[in-house]
């Protein structure tokens, strides 16, 4: 792992086969795609932030500006091997539609999302305060997050869209696989990473 690499992005990079064609939706400054270049992967990043787009382009990552809710139809069926949606699903207006498009664009996908039901978030709610954490670092009035989900709420959405969970990796607040693994993940995981495949 490079010194500055976000731990969860490094983990995602280890799950993507060498030489894959990767579409990274909500790519930020292109950090994941830079990691994947070392594995011979080709990729495209998508983001809406002008500063992220400029940073990604300056680092040699191919990026385009698209609205994930409305413009994923620009990508053809099965045009990529893997689609990544890391900590982005909760920020889109229509998560169900975005997941449907992901399953159309590639058979395999990696999706991660903060777990709103983490025990620290529950304690904040019991104290009368909205949750804040490393995975939910915003005040209620300036958060980009439109949807909050627990793992038992999220996983039926995948299955209802014909997306099979091959692997679930509960993560701690630092983005590492949680030491308790899949023991009570809805309580202890700060976020969760899913390796999925779309039924064809």
What does this structure look like?
There is one protein chain. The chain has helices at residues 7-15, 31-37, 50-58, 95-105, 119-126, 151-160, 185-188; strands at 21-25, 42-46, 63-64, 82-86, 108-114, 163-171, 191-198. The protein has 7 helices and 7 strands, in the order H-E-H-E-H-E-E-H-E-H-H-E-H-E. By secondary structure, it is an alpha/beta fold. It is globular. Helix 1 packs across helix 2 (31-37). The mean pLDDT is 92. The protein has one domain: Vaccinia Virus protein VP39 (Rossmann fold, 3-Layer(aba) Sandwich), CATH 3.40.50. It has a 7-stranded mixed beta sheet with strand order 3-2-1-4-5-7-6, sandwiched between helices.
Descriptive terms for the model:
Rossmann fold; SAM-dependent_MTases_sf; Methionine_synth_MetW; Methionine biosynthesis protein MetW
Secondary structural class: alpha/beta
Shape: globular
Report the top-level CATH class. Answer: Alpha Beta
The number of distinct β-strands equals: 7
Mean pLDDT: 92
Task: Give the biggest sheet.
Answer: 7 strands, mixed
- The third-level CATH topology is Rossmann fold
Organism: Tessaracoccus lapidicaptus
Pfam family, one: MetW
Protein name: Methionine biosynthesis protein MetW
InterPro entries: Methionine_synth_MetW, SAM-dependent_MTases_sf
């Amino acid at each position: 792992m490079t010194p500055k690499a976000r731990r969860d992005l490094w983990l995602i990079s280890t799950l993507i086969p060498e030489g894959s064609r990767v579409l990274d939706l909500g790519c930020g400054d292109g950090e994941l795609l830079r990691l994947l270049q070392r594995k011979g992967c080709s990729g495209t990043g998508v983001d809406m932030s002008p500063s992220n787009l400029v940073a990604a382009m300056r680092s040699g990552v191919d990026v385009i500006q698209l609205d994930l809710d409305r413009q994923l139809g620009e990508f053809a069926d099965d045009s990529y091997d893997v689609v990544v949606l890391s900590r982005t699903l909760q920020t889109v207006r229509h998560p169900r539609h975005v997941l449907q498009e992901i399953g159309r664009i590639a058979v395999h996908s990696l999706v991660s999302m903060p777990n709103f039901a983490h025990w620290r978030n529950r304690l904040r709610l019991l104290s009368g305060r909205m949750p804040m954490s490393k995975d939910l670092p915003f005040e209620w009035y300036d958060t980009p997050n439109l949807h909050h989900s627990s793992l038992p709420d999220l996983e039926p959405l995948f299955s209802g869209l014909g997306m099979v969970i091959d692997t679930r990796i509960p993560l701690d607040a630092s983005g590492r696989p949680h030491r308790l693994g899949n023991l009570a993940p809805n309580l202890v995981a700060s976020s969760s990473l899913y390796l999925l495949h779309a039924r064809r």
